[in-house]
Amino acid sequence: MGINTQNYIVHGAGGIGCVIAGRLAAIGRNVQLVARGPHLQALQTQGLTLTQNTEGTWKLRAESSAHNLDIDDQTVVLLAMKTDDTFGAIEQHSSLYKNLPLVSFQNGVTNEEWLSQRGYNTYGCTVMVGAEITQPGIIRHSGGTLLELGNWPSGTDQISEALVADLSTSGMDASVDDRIIDGKWGKLVRNLANAYLALTNLSVQEASCHPDDRQFIADVNEEAADVLEAAQISARTVGKRNLREQIARLREPGIWPAKPTVTQATRSYPSTWQDLALQRRRVEVDHFNGAIVRLGEKHQVPAPLNRVLRDRCISAAKNLTLPGSETADSLRSAAL
Domains plus CATH for the chain? Predict the structure, then answer.
């Protein structure tokens, strides 16, 4: 494959996938979508509409399977579905995807590990973008444009560099990361709080305001820091602070006021909260908190808060329990 990678398939065209698709389409790249359900029907009939931090409408080809799309040797597949949907989707498309670059715009490290173990041409991307489907075919880009991308588990090549160039041209804050595995583990730690926000019904903007919430998240992150240290895994965080420094910052006393520009309409919620609110019956937390629990068991480092968050969130999803069923105190009691 040459450096002009201009044919993109976004497989799993939900919130984040559609933000990336719209941005790439806006700079003239050929973008095709794989989606499902009413959202797919709306994409086919009305096109893709993005609002708030990205605005526009694009009529892009959308199908339920990539077998119905145009694929050539310049095609790059951007994976943006939930982790549990990755395995079946890739197996259904193995004949198409076996020689194509597959870029995981997904949280956790499960996707890249699974793909690379099966010999796929695997790339990873640390995604700091918030987005949600507000109604079929319409996506609200609630915030964030940062994307760090590289070969899995490390390195870069013409494909990753060309994709970063396209994403940068589209207005995303994209950069090449030659140690993407470190960045993805760092983002996994950040995603450990998703279950807490979902269970306690907090937006991203509210989560750091009250010291009780910050203390809980700090304790969850400290469990992860201890586990990763025992496993000799490097987790690089986004920003100026390392993981231990971020934990110390969360433990600082006092109420941190929310930004006055944040309103109910502009609040953002993690996808785990969206899963509970929309009663989708499944959440991704076993690939976040569960990964820390299993790694802790392997290295004999306890992670009780991560275990409770995983178990309570999975149970809430199965029982169609809406966000707000737990508090920091109830979760701490369950971890004793």
Answer: 7-178 (3.40.50.720), 186-335 (1.10.1040.10)
